[in-house]
DNA sequence: GTCGAGTTTCCTGATT
DNA sequence: GAATCAGGAAACTCGA
């Protein structure tokens, strides 16, 4: 189940590598993702910056792209604060507790990742809640707050 | 063709 | 009362 990580090398600052379409391509294409018209200037600038950075990426195969999972996407976003533009933030870095600050923006980013412009935070959060069963996430009894579980890895600073 | 994992979608109820 | 969030169930996609 977790073998996706074994062939998806974790790169803290190059998390969104896409051999088929760079982030620059993604975010410059309104045909693909017109929803980002509603992003703030800061958000869109940040996202474009992310795209530029990702052009250096070259190591991911098509297989690893398709095996990219939601929790890895979230983890990578958390570990790249300069790229997440405050969409996610750590509540307790050592315990792996984080908070979704901009739920709609997160959903749109994930939707872009999956080329699904109908993605909403409601659907994304449903997928996140399924990780409770597998131990990748643990429930935190606060709204929009999640915690990495024992089966999540790569989020701890000293274990990268 | 079948199966399993990982979502995605719809719906309902609870909470804010 | 409306908006938002959480969880159940079923459908869907894709790789093995």
UniProtKB/TrEMBL annotation:
Keywords: DNA-binding, Nucleus. It is found in: Nucleus. One of its GO terms (cellular component) is nucleus. It comes from the Eukaryota. Its main location: nucleus. GO terms for molecular function: DNA-binding transcription factor activity; sequence-specific DNA binding. Residues 68-149 form the ETS domain. Coiled coil: none annotated. GO terms for biological process: regulation of transcription by RNA polymerase II. InterPro entries: Ets_dom, ETS_fam, WH-like_DNA-bd_sf, WH_DNA-bd_sf. Belongs to the ETS family. This is ELF5 isoform 1. The gene is ELF5.
């Amino acid at each position: 189940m977790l073998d996706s990580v074994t062939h998806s090398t974790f790169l803290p600052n190059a998390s969104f590598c896409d051999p088929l379409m760079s982030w620059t391509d993604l975010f410059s294409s309104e045909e693909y993702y017109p929803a980002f018209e509603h992003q703030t200037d800061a958000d869109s600038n940040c996202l474009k910056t992310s795209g530029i950075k990702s052009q250096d990426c070259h190591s991911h195969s098509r297989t690893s792209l398709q095996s990219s999972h939601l929790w890895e996407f979230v983890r990578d976003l958390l570990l790249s604060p300069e790229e997440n533009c405050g969409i996610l933030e750590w509540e307790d870095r050592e315990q792996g507790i984080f908070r979704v600050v901009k739920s709609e923006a997160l959903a749109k980013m994930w939707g872009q990742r999956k080329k699904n412009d109908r993605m909403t935070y409601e659907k994304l959060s449903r997928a996140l809640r399924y990780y409770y069963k597998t131990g990748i996430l643990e429930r935190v009894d606060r709204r929009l707050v999640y915690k990495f579980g024992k089966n999540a890895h790569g989020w701890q600073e000293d274990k990268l």
